[in-house]
Amino acid sequence: MADNAQPGQQPARQGRSDGPFLLGLATIGVLYVGLIVAMVVADAAFTTPRNLWQTLGSPEIRYAIKLSLISCSITAILSLWVAVPTGYLMSRNKFPGKGLVDAVLDIPIVLPPLIVGLSLLILFQTPPGRAIQKVVPITYAIPSVILAQFAVACAFAVRTMRVTFDQISPRSEQVALTLGCNRSQAFWLVALPEARRGMLTAVTLAWARSLGEFGPILVFSGATRMRTEVLSTSVFLELSIGNLQAAVAVSLLMILAAVIVLLLVRFFGSEPAFGKGMEP
Amino acid sequence: MIQVENLSVRAGAFALSGVRFEIPNGHYAVLMGKTGSGKTTLLEAICGLKPIMAGAIALAGRDVTRLTPGERGIGYVPQDRALFQTMTVRENLAFALHIRRWPRADIDRRVAELAKLLGLDGLLDRKPNGLSGGEAQRVALGRALASRPGILCLDEPLSALDDDTREEMYALLDSVRRYTGVTTLHVTHHLGEAERLADVIFVLKDGRIEPRPGRKAISPQASP
Fold it and tell me: Is B48 helix (H, G, I), strand (E, B) or coil?
């Protein structure tokens, strides 16, 4: 090495290990991953299978499970139904005020959830809101649960679909136009099939987000047992009466649902990313 | 025949204005110009994918200035090919024919014909994902030619290919024009490519078109 070194030039530093750098990265990463795993393990260790079974057997919790599953599924489908056209519009078109619309679409993501609930509550106390309530009771009834979930979850679905369509080159649709399609045919036949992974991600994300929704539901729907109680409400209600065992049991159930959803998103949403960790 | 009269198009930060050129029937024209000179913009304007500010475009003697892309009778191959990823090669080739509601038997016959012309026989049931650059280019060409357009617009069709594949594609493009008699506008910045293929070469510079004769003089008349 010294043979080639010119006078006044330092030879490149070689042989210094990358070990300390990688160790630093790993230490920080492991700390956070450890925290997440420790939280889940602590929950699992806190309760017993018998207790878990007992909690899941109670009619109130069963009602909450049923309402959660149904409301989350309706919210997820509604969100996708709104997110696909909105995301496509935002991705493919320029129009006056687009920046403003884009910012408005992000409001539910950055707003404190409690404020979303309060705003919905106020909205349905206005004259138009009251008029709607005369036909369909919303506040403190099941539709309010879905609306509260939808208000937040849909924003995440819209964002996902926007990114999905941004990543699909509009070229394919342009070629479809030259091949005789109108814009609607190009959307249905070319863009939408290519967006199917993004749609799956959006629907699962919306579902998971709805399952975790608590603040808006508490304010807008109340926490009435056997009426507007979803799983997150159950955790709150059990905690408030000091029944920690039941609260943890319900929490475990929600953790399980969250893990399943995450696996689904990773598996369907981005297959290559899912496999990456296992490649040599 | 492609006739462009006084065309003005906005191209990013600048505008092409007063662009005028004419490509006779069955000719192979190559449009050259530096990156960012507006070649792709001009091609997109001819295809109807980019709104124009002024001027007129006539294809095969018909004013298409106000027609939608699909009504212009153009086969378009973009630079990145943009194959339909969720469809097989066969479905890509048949796409324009399904849209135009050709009868099933005619579609099958046309797809077989294109596969033979372009050497795609073994690939018909594959998805675009696993195709090589040359194969993908041939599928894109087949998809554009399927409904027998009078005009073919190719945007840098050979730019991502290695030298061997490029030679194959030269031969293929020659045989396509002999077989179909299609009037072609081919955009590139590669002089060798232009000289190898063109009957006529246009250079786009500072928003204006300058013609320069191509070296090759293949008869533009189509053989049967």
Answer: coil
